[in-house]
Amino acid sequence: MNIGFIAHDAKKKLMQNFCIAYKGILSHHNLYATGTTGRLIEEATNLPVHKFLAGHLGGEQQMGSQIEHNEMDMVIFLRDPVTQKSHEPDISIAVKLCDTYNIPVATNLATAELLIKGLERGDLDWRELYKN
Question: Model's pTM, two decimal places?
Fold first, then answer.
């Protein structure tokens, strides 16, 4: 499965810790991320991550294109609802695209953990049928 990762600046360390905790599950999948988030995930886990541009330089649009072309199976966008900075990606665009194209999306740690554990159990295997 193709898993996309995006994180606001205040959530990047949390994203690294999440990926460390679930490295065993993530190692069986293709990982995609906006530039800085992808680099940090790679450094923390030694897992290969396809890195798009930084979110504010077009990485969010690149991820959106993957979603629109049904090439993303799940997106984890850890957002900071309190102190989002102007250069950070707009969560509404990613969520709107995921809703439009029926892609599971998590915007906080609790939901991200549910999706990852569901992925491990096979709860997202329907995506393979949906893509074909």
Answer: 0.92
